[in-house]
Amino acid sequence: MADDYQVQSNGGSSDLNSKPLLELYVKASAIDPRRIGADLFCQEFWMELYALYEIGVARVEVKTVNVNSEAFKKNFLGAQPPIMVEEEKGATYTDNREIEGRIFHLAKEFNVPLFEKDPSVEKRIENLYRNFKLFLRSKTENQKVPTPLEDMSAQTRVHYNRVVEQLTGIDQLLADRNSRYLLGNSMTEYDCELMPRLHHIRIIGQSLLSFDIPHNLTHLWNYVLTAYRTAAFIESCPADQDIIRHYKEQLNLFSNQRETLQTPTKTHTIPERVLCDIRNRGLAPDVKVQ
Amino acid sequence: MADDYQVQSNGGSSDLNSKPLLELYVKASAIDPRRIGADLFCQEFWMELYALYEIGVARVEVKTVNVNSEAFKKNFLGAQPPIMVEEEKGATYTDNREIEGRIFHLAKEFNVPLFEKDPSVEKRIENLYRNFKLFLRSKTENQKVPTPLEDMSAQTRVHYNRVVEQLTGIDQLLADRNSRYLLGNSMTEYDCELMPRLHHIRIIGQSLLSFDIPHNLTHLWNYVLTAYRTAAFIESCPADQDIIRHYKEQLNLFSNQRETLQTPTKTHTIPERVLCDIRNRGLAPDVKVQ
């Protein structure tokens, strides 16, 4: 079995018996099964688990699985990643509701504010990714290669406008709150949901849509920068090539092997001009004006 | 798009505008894409939605989708069934947490006791299916054709004993409560979870393991009979052949084409001897002693 999984252990060697060991099975990349794939739920739970690991509440092991391998199919009989296993309790959580339930209880037990509720934040972020997917599908419908952003149909423009409107709304929310994460100075489930989706929007926007998050949304870009400086996000983030491949497959777009042959890279920088704006406004305390 | 889906509508023609229309996309059978497949989460949500439909709270349309079709992939870009769409709200729920959240709110709004909590019931049913899968994997490990139940290794026997022990526990719970469903006289989410799993245990037990739910567990069998008389279960239940095919695929077991060629059947009867016990004890009010 061991050979089928790539293990990344976040567990220390001390206190081995006092902390629960949570194993998270995440979907492998279609390019290289040793790399993590672009499944958003897998990254979301990985970030939440990382938050528990960081403050010493749990040991975490992430295992990358090839869902088409016979070993995986036999072992989990039809269940799909993300799957979480807690061996000492004899528990296998194969459902997002169960996985979140277990993380929720651990967070509650140790007073980690990972699941604080905020309906206004929820409202603001809930349809962003759906609308982005509608925009993506519409713009790539009859397109063989990426075309300029201006070349879009009236229908595509409706979706495009909606995405920009929502991104602007989130930028405004972040401006009003003036905090590092959505709810304050520590990461919550809302960030674990939004950060990976914003990153996908960015990577897929650039590679397939000639689209970028508008550069004037300084607070939103500062939030993206925060993601790129958050260990939970960085650790769990797939390579650009794996993200692009994931969407190309779904859209049935021609894959020119570029992603397959390239050395995997991760875009964790933001445009220079935006970085200047962030510096000038003194938004990120650790980004100093030169 | 319409051609890719098999639609089963539960919506009436009156009150079209006053009730929300919920569309549930469920995984198709691998044998025949027009038939529903054996995905447990799909059946669970279908049963919950049926409960809302039955009392007139929502209109429900179930669409069977071939997840490998280009149309499906393009339309949902990587999301997997169950997927729920509520067009008038512009909402697509691709995550079990979101789907349940929406059904939960509707149930709450209309005072449907679908999500009543009962930790003791939860505890009693939670690991049954996991343990059954361990038993199934263990017993079929080196087996080409089903072997008698007695021919099992010591390791397999551990899993077998655990399954029987849990089934006995649920039988006991049902005997103590003396109610039609787990919590009382109306169906709750616990039944939507347990009924399909018990049915899979029965169908797969018989076809691959020479195993049956012990016949002395009269209350449990009576509960299975209740499932077979519950519209929400019957409507959403896949054919035996589709259930068997699903597990054979995961276990990498030889498929002798029998399931593929057979006319689909649904086992919704229980053993005659058990039915007599139920009658003699007067357990099911509608099963009369002849």
Automatic annotation (TrEMBL), chains A, B:
Q: Which domain of life is it from?
A: Eukaryota
Q: Which interval of the chain is the signal sequence?
A: none
Coiled-coil region(s):
none
* Localisation per UniProt entry: Membrane
Molecular function terms, GO-annotated: chloride channel activity
Q: Which Gene3D superfamilies match?
A: 1.20.1050.10, Glutaredoxin (3.40.30.10)
> Which keywords appear in this protein's UniProt record, sorted alphabetically?
Membrane, Transmembrane, Transmembrane helix
Q: What's the main place this protein lives?
A: membrane
Q: How does it sit in the membrane?
A: Single-pass membrane protein
Q: Name one GO cellular component term.
A: apical plasma membrane
Q: What is the similarity comment for this entry?
A: Belongs to the chloride channel CLIC family.
Record-given protein name:
Chloride intracellular channel exc-4
Source organism (scientific name): Caenorhabditis auriculariae
